[in-house]
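Can anyone check this?
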Amino acid sequence: MENLSLVARIHSFNHTLEPDEPAEALANSTISDFWGNTVKIQLVGILLAITGNFLISISLNIQKCTHLRLSQRGNPKPYYKSKLWWCGIILMGIGELGNFAAYGFAPATLVAPLGCVAVIASAVISVVFLKEVMRPSDVLGATLATAGTYLLVTFAPRVSQEVTAVKVQKYFVSWQFLIYLILEIIIFCVLLYLYKRKGMKHIVVLLMIVALLASMTVISVKAVSGMITVSVKGNMQLQYPIFYVMLIIMIASCAFQVKFLNQAMELYKATEVVPINFVFFTASAVIAGVIFYQEFHGASLLNIFMFLFGCSLSFLGVFLIARNREEEKPEASYIDFGQIPGKKLLNKIQPDPDNNYGTLQNDENSSNNGLVEHGKAQPS
């Protein structure tokens, strides 16, 4: 009997030592659930960003197709009266809305670099539907950009994306952001002075201004999108003043960003503006995400290195796709005087309403004139 009671005591003593095991298992389960939920939420943001950029690329090609069709008509109507053009605008709006929503689910450091999807898709669509030539550099660029996108998604920071008004207020007055904001304001004022007062309109100056504005756009868009997402889930955030502060910053920075980007497009070719702007915008978005939202806090060096390597591959891919790409211009009827034997190269002229191209001077005798009709030189 004593042996039995001793066994019972030992069994009951062992039982008292086991309660910590379920607690540890519960903690591990909680961590794994949080990690799994974070990955699922980020996946929603990734899909929204990729879909949005794909729709934007379709929109750009539809608008380009509209302009090419209208330019081939005798009396082209304004592009804004074309239904096809409006379809492109609507698709662009939906795509930008998808990008906006993506910031509420995924890190800003991940959503911004995924803009390379629009460049890749645009290159493919233009080859399939607009019959543009696929160059070897396009294939290589698309491959590198795709590999970069894979690395970005794989090694993106795994942080909680629930952005509340309290968090935004805390981030807004953090010392690292205040230092970053002061430096950005100083650099912006210097660049604006060089551009406005000194007339320095170099492409780097213009796109640096755009990038500085874009960093504030990314910060404010993520804040607004995140607070709206949390509000939709039931935790209302729209009563906090910081929401409207961020909304004003978002609208103002977007407006000025578009203004300076348009000026860059007027002064330089799209093949120069697109890759440089993508690099500057992505770099500013990553820096803003790291400093304001502390998205790489606790990340390993391997993750940071592979993420930056993915960004570099995307940059190189976009550069190769945009490099030396000729801009499409509508064809117009003209006579190049240099192509007519024995005639001086005066200029390229358009036909008058009677389909006449004017008179040409002969090199041998300036008094003899030739009348060119329907693209052929007729002797006088």
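Reply from J.R.: I decoded it. Strands lie at 335-336, 348-349, 356-361, 369-373, 376-379.
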